[in-house]
Automatic annotation (TrEMBL):
<keyword id="KW-0472">Membrane</keyword>
<keyword id="KW-0482">Metalloprotease</keyword>
<feature type="transmembrane region" description="Helical">
    <location>
        <begin position="36"/>
        <end position="56"/>
    </location>
</feature>
<keyword id="KW-0479">Metal-binding</keyword>
<dbReference type="InterPro" id="IPR016047">
    <property type="entry name" value="M23ase_b-sheet_dom"/>
</dbReference>
<keyword id="KW-0175">Coiled coil</keyword>
<keyword id="KW-0645">Protease</keyword>
<dbReference type="GO" id="GO:0046872">
    <property type="term" value="F:metal ion binding"/>
</dbReference>
<protein>
    <submittedName>
        <fullName>Peptidase M23 family</fullName>
    </submittedName>
</protein>
<keyword id="KW-0812">Transmembrane</keyword>
<dbReference type="InterPro" id="IPR050570">
    <property type="entry name" value="Cell_wall_metabolism_enzyme"/>
</dbReference>
<dbReference type="GO" id="GO:0006508">
    <property type="term" value="P:proteolysis"/>
</dbReference>
<keyword id="KW-0378">Hydrolase</keyword>
<dbReference type="GO" id="GO:0004222">
    <property type="term" value="F:metalloendopeptidase activity"/>
</dbReference>
<dbReference type="Pfam" id="PF01551">
    <property type="entry name" value="Peptidase_M23"/>
</dbReference>
<keyword id="KW-0862">Zinc</keyword>
<feature type="coiled-coil region">
    <location>
        <begin position="79"/>
        <end position="116"/>
    </location>
</feature>
C-alpha cells in the first residue's frame, strides 16, 4: 500500500504561479495542486456545456416565437383579404338580385303583351324558405362566407327558374308567331282590282242566272306574281277543272288558301312556303274571262270571305 500512496502524492504535484509587479512591490505567489486544476477545468467545461445548451434552447424558442408571429401576421393579412373578397361577392350578389328584379318586371311586361295573367309561383321543388328573407340579430353570428354561399344558392335557383320561365315564354311567342304566319292575311298580288266578291253573284258567262262564288277574283296584269297569303305547305299544285292552273296551301290551325286561273305555277306539291313567296303568275287558264287570280280562304274546310282576313 505504501508505494501506491506515495505515487499518488507525487503525481498530485503542487505548482506555483509568481506574480512580479514592476514597481518595487513584493512579488506574490499562488500555489495550487494539479488535481484542483483538473477539477476546475471539468467544472468550467460543464458550465460551458450548460451555457451552450441554454443558449441553444433560448435561441430556438425565440426563433419559434418569431415564426409564430410571422404566421399570425400572414394569417391575419390573408383573412383580411378574404373578408374583403367575400364583402365584394356579397355586394355583387346584391347587384345581381337587383338585376333579377328588373328581369321579373320585364317578364311581367312580356306576359302582359301575351295577354297572360299573374306570374305563376316558382315550379322549383327545393325548399327555399331556409335561404329566403333571413336576417335579424341571429344572422350576425353567421360567417360572411356562409351568408354568401346561401345567397349564391338562392341566386342559382332564381336563375334556373327565370331560364325555365323565359323558355316557356319563348315557346308561347313562337307558337303565337306560327299562328300569325299561318293566318292568311297577305293580299296575293301587287294591287289589282277586285272584279268579283265572295258570295252569290250572277254567272260571269251568263250561262246561269245565279252562281255561288267561293272566293274573290283579283284582276291583274298577265304574268304578275301571285304570293302565298300565309306560310304553309303546298297541298296541291296542278291543273284542276274550272280553276285551270291551281295551287292549294295548307297553313295549319284550320286554315287553307287556294289560287286559280294562273298562267304558270312556281311551286310543287309537298313544298313549304313562307308568307309572301311567289307560288305562280296571274293568267286566265280554266273557267275565266280575263287575266285574274281566283283567291279562296278556307277555315276548317269551309270557304270564307277572304276580305275578312286579308288586309
Ligand atoms: Zn273566281
Amino acid at each position: 500500500m505504501e508505494p501506491i500512496k506515495r505515487q499518488r502524492k507525487e503525481s498530485d504535484s503542487v505548482y506555483t504561479i509568481m506574480l512580479i509587479p514592476h514597481k518595487g512591490h513584493e512579488p506574490r505567489s499562488i500555489h495550487f495542486r494539479l488535481s484542483l486544476l483538473k477539477k476546475v477545468g471539468i467544472v468550467c467545461g460543464l458550465l460551458c456545456l450548460l451555457g451552450a445548451g441554454v443558449l441553444f434552447q433560448s435561441s430556438h424558442i425565440l426563433y419559434k416565437a418569431h415564426q409564430d408571429q410571422q404566421e399570425l401576421l400572414t394569417y391575419r393579412s390573408e383573412k383580411a383579404v378574404q373578408e374583403q373578397k367575400i364583402g365584394q361577392l356579397l355586394q355583387e350578389n346584391e347587384a345581381i338580385e337587383k338585376e333579377m328584379a328588373e328581369l321579373s318586371k320585364l317578364e311581367e311586361a312580356v306576359r302582359r303583351e301575351l295577354g297572360e295573367g299573374a306570374v305563376q309561383p316558382s315550379r322549383s321543388g327545393i325548399d327555399r324558405s331556409q335561404y329566403l328573407g333571413q336576417g335579424g340579430p341571429q344572422a350576425a353570428k353567421v360567417e360572411a362566407v356562409d351568408i354568401y354561399a346561401a345567397q349564391n344558392k338562392v341566386l342559382q335557383e332564381k336563375v334556373k327558374d327565370r331560364k325555365a320561365t323565359l323558355n316557356d315564354l319563348l315557346g308561347r311567342l313562337r307558337e303565337l308567331n306560327q299562328r300569325k304566319a299561318a293566318l292568311p292575311t297577305l293580299w296575293p298580288t301587287n294591287g289589282g282590282t277586285i272584279t268579283s266578291y265572295f258570295g252569290g253573284r250572277s254567272d260571269p258567262f251568263g250561262n246561269r242566272s245565279y252562281d255561288w262564288h267561293p272566293g274573290v277574283d283579283i284582276a291583274n296584269d298577265y304574268g304578275a306574281p301571285v304570293y302565298a297569303s300565309a306560310s304553309g305547305t303546298i297541298e296541291e299544285a296542278g291543273w284542276v277543272s274550272g280553276y285551270g292552273r291551281y295551287v292549294r296551301i295548307q297553313h295549319g290551325y284550320g286554315y287553307e288558301t287556294a289560287y286559280g286561273h294562273m298562267s304558270k305555277l312556281a311551286v310543287q306539291a309537298g313544298q313549304s312556303v313562307s308568307k309572301g313567296d311567289v307560288i305562280g303568275y296571274v293568267g286566265s287558264s280554266g273557267y275565266s274571262t280575263g287575266p285574274h287570280v281566283h283567291f279562296e280562304v278556307l277555315v276548317n274546310g269551309q270557304t270564307t270571305d277572304p276580305l275578312e282576313l286579308v288586309r
